[in-house]
Amino acid sequence: xxxxxxxxxxxxxxxxxxxxxxxxxxxxxxxxxxxxxxxxxxxxxxxxxxxxxxxxxxxxxxxx
Length: 64
Description:
Blueprint: H1 17-40, H2 44-49, H3 57-62
């Protein structure tokens, strides 16, 4: 069973200004991409074990 780190360390000052918003947008996009990829690798049975189906993957990864 694999474990995924879900917490992101944010450096001081990255939440300020255009650069901070750009970084946050990129980080959110990348987190959704990684989540989608990890869930897509699971078999239908594994998804069923955690209460999901293939059609749920995009909705789950977009929640960020």
